[in-house]
Amino acid sequence: MRDAGAARENAAAVVAAVRARLDAIAAADRPRPLMYGESLGAIAARSAADGADGVLVAGTPAAGWEPVPDRFTAVRHADDPVVWFSPRLLVERPEGWPGPWLPSSRSDRPRAACSPRSTPHRVTAIATGRN
Length: 131
Fold this sequence. Notes:
The chain is an alpha/beta fold. It has helices spanning 4-23, 40-47, 81-84, 109-112, 120-127; strands at 34-38, 54-58, 72-75. The chain has two domains: 1-84, Rossmann fold (3-Layer(aba) Sandwich), CATH 3.40.50; 86-131, no CATH class.
């Protein structure tokens, strides 16, 4: 998920190459191109969807859940953490989450300033001004 730009560019290049080959086939004999993408590939497939007759994506990260064209189908599984991921989760509890959120105990926030920089406790302490 770190370089969606490159994934989009690559998907566009593949779709353009496939379309060029298909355009050389008589319309009556031409197959209908369909696309599939998962996770980062779902973001890429969405960006190149204009070149396909249909698109199926799975595991699209949360930022990718937007209105889609009729020929586009998005699938997500409730247990797949990727579909729920968002940087907002670093500071906000997800709606409907039953238990404590970052950090798992509020009592450890003061000590979080002494934690390694990359721990969720440290990130939460910084985000809430308790460092």
